[in-house]
Amino acid sequence: MFATNRASCWRQLFAAACAALLLGACTNEPMFTATDITGATFGQDFRLFDPDGRTRSLADFRGKAVLVFFGFTQCPDVCPTALIRAAEVKRLLGADAGRLQVVFVTLDPERDTPAVLREYTAAFGADVLGLYTTVENTARVAEEFRIFYRKVPTGDSYTMDHTATSYVYDPAGRLRLAVLHAQGAEALAADLKTLLQSFSR
Amino acid sequence: MKRLAFASLFVFTASTAFAQVHVAEPWVRATVPQQRSTGAFLKITSQEDARLVAAQSPVAKVVEVHEMKMEGDVMKMRAVPALDLPAGKTVELKPGGYHVMLIDLHAQVKEGEVVPLTLVVEGKDGKREQIEVQAPVHPLAAPANGNQHGHGHGH
């Protein structure tokens, strides 16, 4: 009698613990470390040139997740750091690496010529794509993607302030995540794995 | 010739003997052709309160000490007039913080090369000291700690 009571007590406790765990999974944990911006109405698409002069848009990468970063190649700190993170994410994705397209959009088309863009992105991976457009269209695209940037004179040259957020599109081409500069490669790779899971290979 | 070599050796020894500033692990991020600027990173320790007030390098027309700051998620880089070097504290110039900005490069900076840097440090008494640093060039895609090729030393 005593033994049965004790067993049922354990069963009840176990059931309660399971319920708490399930509830916790449903209510507490967000799916992504990055900010989920699914349903955002900005940054829906772009029309930019690749270093070969071909027009590229998001539709070209359908079936792949796309990680987009805006920057400039004369940047010694944030831009290489963001692209190193992208390369590390690809490594962490393992077998899914081919399901991620990394795109670098220059905010400095005056200095980032197609040749510079090609060489620069290649340093971070053969499949990293550098994109550019005219100075006027760069301003329009940046506004459309809510990317702030500004030239800042230094010496007799200039540097640039710019938003360091990366965006993630899902394989259906929908804008899904805004990734802060501070988010690490592991957390970003985990976010991409979660995102890719819901899309078949 | 022998005399000259001896003389320069003496100068070198003298300058290091009195140097209160130690520089460790300097490195420069490689560039691609036509890329006109890059950053140098290092660790600097002064035995007495001092300030890093300037930097020079033969590879670039303009050399400035910059601070990178995130305001929200906007990255801003600014030249700083001077970088405080509190006594005995190692100040790191590294991605995510300070760097020596090499602007208007005369040529591509390639992996494996060594970039000479001169750091100008001003003591509390206003006296300036020049520290010569030989900074190896690490790949463009070198991670933030830059520690792919072991350590470099400059005195």
UniProtKB/TrEMBL annotation, chain A:
Keyword entries, A-Z: Copper, Disulfide bond, Metal-binding, Signal
SS bond partners: C75-C79
Keyword Disulfide bond: yes
Entries under Pfam families matching the protein: SCO1-SenC
Domain Thioredoxin, chain residue ranges per copy: 23-197
GO molecular function, one term: metal ion binding
Annotated positions binding Cu cation: C75, C79, H162
Signal peptide interval: 1-19
Matches recorded under InterPro entries: SCO1/SenC, Thioredoxin-like_sf, Thioredoxin_domain
Membership in a protein family: Belongs to the SCO1/2 family.
Protein name: SCO family protein
Automatic annotation (TrEMBL), chain B:
Xref: InterPro entries: LpqE-like, Lxx211020-like, PCuAC_sf
Signal peptide: 1-19
Keywords: Signal
Record flagged with keyword Nucleotide-binding: no
Record-linked Pfam families: PCuAC
Signal in keyword set: yes
PANTHER family assigned to the protein according to its UniProt record, in alphabetical order: BLR7088 PROTEIN (PTHR36302), COPPER CHAPERONE PCU(A)C (PTHR36302:SF1)
Protein name: Copper chaperone PCu(A)C
Organism this protein belongs to: Pseudothauera rhizosphaerae
